[in-house]
Task: inverse folding
């Protein structure tokens, strides 16, 4: 960690010396707890589809746009500072495109099993929170999945990782919930109750098809063969239900 600190301290002003705690690592970078109420997100130049520069731009732009919604539900991280690296190759490791310093939000990534185990009064609080939410439905998080949703007792849920943020049809944000079952049904029913409109399943299936295509393009059939087969079957089924013959 000292090597990393030394390599990037000149680009990130006021960077605590550490030690830092690694909170998570993904395709496009890593997130570190700086120990002062903030986290540092490092964005790699290369990862999946697209570029690290575009991911960095999207997230900083989205968080600046959403800054006026601080204090609302769901909770959102405040962007404290951000910047690009002058020398992406200044240290050992994958080349970096940029960095974001964010407010640390209390909570842990949502676990599907924990949602089913919520007490009745906690479920009612969640229902009341969503019922009170009144936000435009044209802005998309872009990578809405349970690992990007934080929960903490007594607080509204929090959303993190806006690197894929943009605009589009509301159904596009449900593309990761492609497995039929109680979780997807509950999400769809909650959306319909809050928005006053039903899910357009044609648009949803098209979003699932695009998601499956991207997954195949990024990982092909990497990993267990069953995972590759699952992705292909989701793509074929989504295209078929959307009226497109694969």
Result:
């Amino acid at each position: 960690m000292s090597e990393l600190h030394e390599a990037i301290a000149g680009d990130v002003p006021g960077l605590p010396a550490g030690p830092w705690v690694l909170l998570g690592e993904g395709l496009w970078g890593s997130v570190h707890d700086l120990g002062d109420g903030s986290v540092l997100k490092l964005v790699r130049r290369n990862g999946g589809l697209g570029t690290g520069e575009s991911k960095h731009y999207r997230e900083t732009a989205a968080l600046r746009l959403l800054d006026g919604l601080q204090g609302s539900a769901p909770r959102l991280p405040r962007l404290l500072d951000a910047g690009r690296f002058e020398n992406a190759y200044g240290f050992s490791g994958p080349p970096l495109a940029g960095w974001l310093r964010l407010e640390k939000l209390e909570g842990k990534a949502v676990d599907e099993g924990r949602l089913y185990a919520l007490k009745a009064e906690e479920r009612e609080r969640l229902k009341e929170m969503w019922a009170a939410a009144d936000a435009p439905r044209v802005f998309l998080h872009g990578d809405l999945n349970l690992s990007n949703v934080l929960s903490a007792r007594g607080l509204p849920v929090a959303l993190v990782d806006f690197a894929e943020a943009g605009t589009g049809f509301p159904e596009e944000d449900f593309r990761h919930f492609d497995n039929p079952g109680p979780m997807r049904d509950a999400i769809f029913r909650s959306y319909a109750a809050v928005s006053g409109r039903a899910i357009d399943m044609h648009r949803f299936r098209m979003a699932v098809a695009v998601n499956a295509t991207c997954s195949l393009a990024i990982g092909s059939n990497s990993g267990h063969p069953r995972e590759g087969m699952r992705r292909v079957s989701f793509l074929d089924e989504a295209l078929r239900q959307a009226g497109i013959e694969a």
Q: What stands out?
A: Helices lie at 2-8, 52-65, 112-116, 120-132, 182-195, 201-219, 225-241. The domain at 2-103 is CATH 3.30.200.20 (Phosphorylase Kinase; domain 1). The chain has a mean pLDDT of 80.
